[in-house]
Structure formats: structure tokens, C-alpha cells
Specification:
Alpha-lytic protease prodomain-like, 2 domains, Alpha-Beta Plaits, three-stranded mixed β-sheet, single chain, two-stranded antiparallel ribbon, mainly alpha
Length: 325
Amino acid sequence: MTDPTPLCGGEPGPQPKTAAPDGGHGGHSHGVSINADRRYLVGALALLGAFMVAEVVVAFLSGSLALLSDAGHMLSDVGAIGAALWAMHLAAQPARGSWTFGWKRAEILSAAGNGVTLLVVSGIVAFEAIRRLVHPPEVEGGAVVAVALVGVVVNIAAAWLLARANRSSLNVEGAYQHILTDLYGFIGTVVAGVVILLTGWTRADPIASLVVVALMLYAAWGLLRDSGRILLEGAPRNVDLDSLSTHLLETQHVRAVHDLHVRTVTSDLPAVSVHVVVEDECFADGHAPQLLDYLQACLQGHFDVEHSTFQLEPTSHSAHEPGTH
């Protein structure tokens, strides 16, 4: 071979990153420890849980559907945070036996389940809101305003806690977005309560509930879209497949790339597997291991992909390569 140094993208490739001492993906540290995330989630869970119970009591006493719908949405938030904590516990379990990635996708299943729960709750609240638009009951506006104002404060505190956690996790981000929608819902409920106090127009309460329903549907769509993309083995949104393939092909001694698969195992853990056709001389002169190092460094440096599997093939192998794509 005329040049023993493979290049990635026309420039010298970066040195391969070393694995973390525990065999994990050391490059995916985001400055927030799992234990810190747990503390933030537990704090938010305690705040929301206590307020949810109080809100349900006041909702029944005042006859406010807006408060009850907020409580239903908050129940989904409490469930989201609880599921996130449980998923963190499962994801921390080491790989063993047939579970070659451990339980890392537990958080994705949790996010998908939470999205489904949001759809169910929004459907129930929407049905009751429409019924109350037709036959509006009496609503105690003062109680609605008082509880909703407290809800705004509680949700701001919970959002502040979760904003300090690692929001690159789909679970944490999902819980954070739910709390934001709750905050917007409480603001709408305050407005509805003020309208009832000033005008006596009780239909403002179910209208506020429908606003909360719209927010729940939006949050559910985001969670189901993102978790579904991962569960269906879709490529991460931030990875351009054409660009990735081009970078590999621009590496010296690489002749072709096929069977390229990019997927996400769980949040912050993309994985790539690919067959790379290289010059026959790479195997003859023992240069293949060095080329492999540079290919892995190429993915790490340009695409932040640390879990990669390469199958290096000589050009002569293409004659009997089955099912290439």
C-alpha cells in the first residue's frame, strides 16, 4: 500500500477514544450523574404528588372540571416521573444472558406507555368537557383560582428541579415537558376562574379543560413519535446517513460501503453496524486493524457514535456476499 495512514473525510482521523473503565460508553457523559437525576426526580415527584391529592379534593368540593382535568394530567406526570425512576433502575442493570444491552430500553418503553396514558386521560377529560359545555354545572370560581395559583408555583418548582437533570434522556425530557404543559394548564385555569368570578360564565371552566386536553395531546404525540422511532429501529434524527456513508468512503483504502444500519438503543446510545469493502492489500500487509481504528474514530469524531460494529471485507469477497443492501 502506498500510504499506510488512512484518512477520514480528507483529514487525519482523530485518535480512537478509550472505553470507560466499566466497559461503558465513556464519551456520553453529560455532567449530571444518575444519582443526581434521581434526587431531582424524587423531589419533583414529592411536590406533584402532594399537590395532586389536594387538588382532587378541592376539585370535587368546588365542582371544577378544570381542576379535575389538571389533576388527571398531573397524575400522568407523577406516573411519568415514577416510571422514569424505575426505568433508571432497570437501565443501570448490567448486560447478562440474552439481554445483551441490559435493560437500557426500559426508559423508551416507559416513555411510550406514558404517551398512551396521556391519550387516554385526554379522551376522558375531553368527553366530560364537551358534556359540561352543553349542560354547565355550578363552579366555585374562588376555589379554582386559589388552587390554580398554588399549582403554578408547584409546577414552576418541579420544572426547575427537572431542568437541572439530564434532559437528553427521553424519560426526563418527557417528564419535563409534561410539567410545562401542566403549568400552562394551571395558567388557563386561573384565567377561567377569574372569568367565572367576574362574569359568572361557568362555561369558561370546560373551555379551559379543552385547552389542557390540547396540551396533553401535543405532549403525547411528541413522546409516542420519539419513542416509536427508537422502538422501530429508525435512525437518530441527528445522524445524516448520506453524510455518514460519505465520510466512510472518503477514508483511504475504502472501496465501498453496504449493509449500513443506524439505530438508537436508548437515549444517548446510537449504534451503527456496517460492511466496509477495503483493498485486498489491507489484509495482506496487516493494515486492517489500523484501518478499523480510524473508521471507529471517524464515527466518534464526526457523529458522536461510540457503539459501532464494522465488518471489513476484501474486494474479492463481493462475489459471494449474500443479501447486500
